[in-house]
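Below sits our specimen:

——
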Amino acid sequence: MEPMQQSVIDAQIVDTAFGEISTLLKGRATRSESQREHHSRGESYLAAAMPDIVCFPQSTQEVSEILKIAARHGLPIVPFGAGTSIEGQVSALRGGLSIDMREMKKVLRLSVPDSDVTVEAGITRKQLVENLANTGLTFFIDPGADATIGGMTSTRASGTTAVKYGTMRDNVLGLTVVLADGRIIKTGSRARKSSAGYDLTALFVGAEGTLGVITEVTLRLHPLPESVSVAVCSFDTIQGAIETVIETVQFGLGVARVEFLDEQQIIAINRYSKTNLSALPTLFFEFHGISSRMTSDQAEMLQTIAAEHGGQEFQWKHSLEAQDELWSARHAAYYAAHALLPNSKVFVTDVCVPISRLADCISETKNDLSHVSFPATIVGHVGDGNFHVLCVFREGDEDQLEEVHRFADGVVRRALRMGGTCTGEHGIGFGKLKYLREEHGDSLETMRDLKLALDPTNRMNPGKIISGDFVEIGLKSASRP
């Protein structure tokens, strides 16, 4: 972990702003060291940076008034959800205000006939699913952590079910957003399609709080499947596993989840979750259907495809208990990897490539791992070409951490060469800033123009997605006569 960065904002400005915010929120603001430290980082090994003030609004109107106060005093704003991001999204690099959204967790409106719901941004994924019980509907996007819906929207999150149900980009219908000057805007509508104007909803989904603070989200919901089938299959080679995935998707088998685990990850979960899987490249499948006959037919075709590519020990998990055991082991992959090395920490990186290049990308990454000093595992949402590498290093070993960073850099640059992206679902924050020019080229200037149009003084989560120096150049250019 790099040293914690300290704010350089004038103490008198902070004092004045804190007094105004405390009065507004009736005490729901703090400058305590412990709260500021808690809001200084997510779950990464990037630099932590403490805000000067942490506040806890309970309504969109309160967020608006907070941003008006911040605008008067020139204070930066950093939205905060569950703190599960891993690319530095919540570090207050320039101090200022951390706006913790977790007291805004209401379900504001639910329409079962329309299969949509409007929630406040601070509600977590699990809280939302609990609120949908007995409706016949659910929200399938599952990034692993129990993140807030606002945070998932801000990072354009996805997860294991993205191959069937898409990412947050595909499931957000509309937003309420507070802009840098305190204005409240609403984007999108509940209609399933529209040709009216710019798609501002898509602009804010994935903006990581750099354009405004998301306070309400309208989401598309999906019916619970009538039939679910789950299978696990090991393969002699990575190539065989990925070719099975490609054909499964091409044949339109309706796979809801397809997860890849390399042999090192299988070894780790066998130890940690007490499973008994063969230490080989392995796929976990889940199919959703409207009838047991439908999922049975899908199962038979999948088994045939897998056998043609070296699949072995094909097992169907018929009971709910067996299915839950398998997916619990998959969701515990991080903790299983962590347990491989005593007194360790885990650095996680992710990339996404065209599925036709996925086998090559994973194989070359595995070759890189054969030359490093640290243990590592690979897991992936391979139905859409996304995979993660979990690098386990000795806590406090700066040389090994540097080796991890060099390895992760190589993984990203390989993905970019293969026509992929530097991050499939973790976002940019400031951890992956250096790759955006290589990935987006001159369109980065357009991103900066949008940033400055909505946040002309660069106070909304500054230093994230677009580097501070790059924005400052834009600010100076815009100020010329």
DSSP finds 18 helices and 18 strands in the chain.
